[in-house]
Give the backbone structure.
Amino acid sequence: FERYIGSGIATLIGIKQCKRRPYGDNPPLESLLKKHKYTMPPEDALVELSNETGESVKSLQRWIRRRQQAVFSTRHTKFTESSWRFVFYGAMFGYGITSLWNEDYFWETKFCWIGYPFKVWAMK
């Protein structure tokens, strides 16, 4: 459902499917991120790693931002994942309404309590 119908609806209403920029493998920077619980490390740690790897602090910060953004879903993905939930819960709500439409207690709640605790529910 997500791939065909949800994606088509998302495209129709103008939600673009963007691709994330690849962040590439960088084991020393990955270990630094893990050490700081995947948040931006302090400037002095980045300067130290910059001296070790030979990359600029700016490029390390760019890599960290791309790495952090890769974890999050895109707006298109969020829409397609939520679209099937909308359809499912909408269908279940419609089924509940249609199955209770002809019952007396659907329109007047006092009928739920007539004959309580020995109420016999008619199965149709």
Q: What stands out?
A: The mean pLDDT is 86. The two ends are 32 Å apart (CA to CA). The chain has six helices and no strands.
